[in-house]
Amino acid sequence: MATLARQQHPLADSASQLRHYDEVTGIIPPFSSTLQKAGYDGLFAGRPEILQINVGKLCNQTCRHCHVDAGPDRREVMSRETMEQCLQFLDRSGMKTVDITGGAPELNPHYRWLVSECRQRGCRVMTRCNLTIITAHERFNDLPRFFAQHQVEVISSLPFYEASRTDRQRGTGVFDASIEALLLLNAEGYGKPDSGLQLHLVYNPVGAFLSAPQQMLEQQFKKELSNRYGIVFNNLYVINNLPISRFLHFLLQSGQYEEYMKKLVMAFNPATVPALMCRYTLSVSWEGFLYDCDFNQMLDLKITDQAGNARHISTVPAEALQERRIMVSQHCYGCTAGSGSSCGGQLVP
Ligand code: SF4
Ligand code: SF4
Description:
Shape: globular
Oligomer: single chain
Bound molecules: iron/sulfur cluster
Radius of gyration: 19 Å
Largest sheet: 8 strands, mixed
């Protein structure tokens, strides 16, 4: 399947996605006014703790729900120079947690260098690994060993413990390849008690609905993956699908867009607001521009200075990012629905 970008689809353009949000404004209240009713005059960042580096849109998969519109036909990958600028930012900001994402980040030729540089700085490093990359080619087969040697926390998507639902969202054969990769990670000690090697799985609904509670699903996944394949892992993160890029495309094509947005609004939970990930995360694009989160990045809602100029990782003073006003729009309802949603799973019990 070609990405929206390759198809030159209108939704490949972030402005066109934002226009769809305007279309439902008469039906769905603006997110900012819902926040205000809940007692929040906007969203403001605290001290950034996690630097989430998106090293590019190149991926070996083309999942139906992907908010990045990643795929094998994308060519945008972070250069070594921009990675060096990220490292310099870590040095001057003192941030100690790095979350590497993509695309499939391992396809970036400088990925392993970036990981080892972050680890040498004493940073906790999380990597978003789609699992299938590990078995996609022999040059990636040693990734579990590389992760273990660098004590990297691995966070991997597995929409379900059955092939049909996983393959429906992520592509034919993805489930079997993911199971093979999980067994290789387990063989390195990942997910095993006392190994110190953390393996977390990510669940997101295969459709236009909100997920069941995280704790319940985690127990179910642990039981089923262990019984069926002998697979172990640490935590399950439940993440809502946000109406961005290919998931927005799916919603519009299937005529479920309005209904899904209404579901998110009905499920708005003010208790999630203090824990929203944009309040303590900074997201960097492959070009080095800064965003409040990976979702804002895909909608091209850049962090700007007071004059409206886009902030870039190479020049931004670390202190300028504290207490900044976060850019919000209708997609933010995805993070505040139910128990909330973030790259680390649900936000409140
Ligand atoms: S969801 Fe992840 S694995 Fe799937 S296409 Fe997007 S970046 Fe690749
Ligand atoms: S999409 Fe979520 S994380 Fe991003 S700015 Fe909105 S509420 Fe914050």
